Structure formats: C-alpha cells, structure tokens
UniProtKB/TrEMBL annotation:
Phylogenetic lineage: Eukaryota, Metazoa, Spiralia, Gnathifera, Rotifera
Top-rank taxon, per record: Eukaryota
UniProt entry keywords in alphabetical sequence: Repeat, TPR repeat
InterPro entries in the record: TPR-like_helical_dom_sf (IPR011990), TPR_rpt (IPR019734)
UniProt protein name: Uncharacterized protein
Annotated source species: Rotaria magnacalcarata
Length: 214
C-alpha cells in the first residue's frame, strides 16, 4: 500500500510538471493517467480509477492516427470496462467492452485470441442481466476462438459449453444444449480422460438432457 501511495505522489508531481509546461506531451499524459488508474484499481479505489481512465480515453480518442493508436484505445476501453464491472456498473462495463471489441474486429481475424476474454465478459454481463440470447451468441463467439487455440484451456471450455448449454436448456432447445455438452465431452475426454471430474459431471448432465428429450 505504501509503495502505491509513493507512486501516486510521483505521478501527481509529474502531472504538475505537465500542467506548468508550455507544451503538452499527450503521450506522457495518457501514460500517467493510466498508471494512476491502474494503481487506484489495485487499491480497490475504483471510482478514482474510472476518473483517470476517462481522462486518458478523452485524449486517446482524439489521437487516432494509426492502428497502433486504435489498439491502445481498445486496451484502455477494456481496462475501464473491468473497473466498471468491479463497481457493479454493468451498463458501462458492457458499453466499453463493446467499444473495445468494435476496434479489434476492424483489424483482426474473428478468431483472434485477444477477443476471447472480451467476448466472454460481454456474454457474462448479458447472462447476468437475463439477456440470454445475446449471452449465448457471445459465448459461442468465445468458443469459436477457443477451438482454434493450439492449447485450449479445458476449464474455460467447460464453463463456456455448460453455460451455453444451460441457456439453450432454459429455452427448451434441448438439441442445442446437448450439442454443446456433448462437444465438451468429445473435446475433453481424450485430453483429460473419461474419469476426470468435469467430464463425468458433464456426462451426467448429458443424461439429464436426454431424459428431457425422451
């Protein structure tokens, strides 16, 4: 905590120097703002973190001259979205995750790994607000990326498959629910083994879905 406080004092002095300078170095200023935001975030002071991320964003949105600038802005959008999520402000969290994904989608492949966490976070927000169709859409986008990775995270795959299956189950679309659950078992059995806990639990879930369709 003391190190964070000392760092904040340092950055506040740097801001004072910027304020008294005859010319403004926007790159340095945004770097200071984001560093301060990151420190406030690590301290759990989310309101101040939002304040400084917004200051950085206000500059970055006016300085878009290259893909690199837009990529940087996309990352800042993602950071502030996580802070809004920590504050329980789902609307702003969703807004900034969508802004981040919109930039990445302009320049990157639909299966780029950097979109995975953004899509998953968007899906989770939709699910928490009972917008299940949109949640399923983004969980499936996440799964499409997961399937292209050379070393898939099977715990994440399980979470995505089961959440998506449960959404379809709630819609009484048991066929789609089964497809997702069975896909996980098919993907994970060879890597984890038939006796793995999540594989066995998913197999039990599959049996319960089959009983619903009988």
């Amino acid at each position: 905590m003391e190190d964070n406080s000392n760092a904040l004092v340092y950055y506040e002095k740097a801001l004072t120097i910027q304020d008294t300078s005859q010319t403004t170095d926007h790159s340095s200023l945004t770097s200071i703002y984001k560093s301060m935001a990151s420190i406030y975030k690590s301290m759990g002071n989310y309101s101040d973190a939002v304040t400084f991320y917004l200051k950085a964003i206000a500059i970055e949105e006016k300085e878009l001259t290259s893909y690199s600038d837009e990529a940087t802005l996309s990352n800042t959008y993602s950071h502030i979205a996580t802070v809004y999520s920590s504050l329980g402000d789902k609307n702003n969290a969703l807004l900034f995750y969508q802004k981040a994904s919109a930039i990445k989608e302009k320049f990157l492949s639909p299966h780029d790994p950097s979109l995975l966490s953004i899509y998953t976070n968007i899906a989770s927000i939709y699910l928490s607000t009972e917008q299940k169709s949109d949640a399923a859409k983004y969980f499936e986008k996440s799964l499409q990326i997961q399937e292209t990775l050379p070393s898939p995270d099977y715990s994440l795959t399980h979470a995505l498959r089961i959440k998506t299956a449960q959404i379809y189950e709630s819609f009484k679309n048991y066929g789609a629910a089964l497809q997702h659950a069975e896909s996980y078992v098919s993907e994970a059995r060879s890597a984890l083994g038939s006796d793995h806990q999540t594989v066995k639990a998913t197999q039990d879930y599959i049996e319960s879905l089959r009983r619903l369709t009988a």
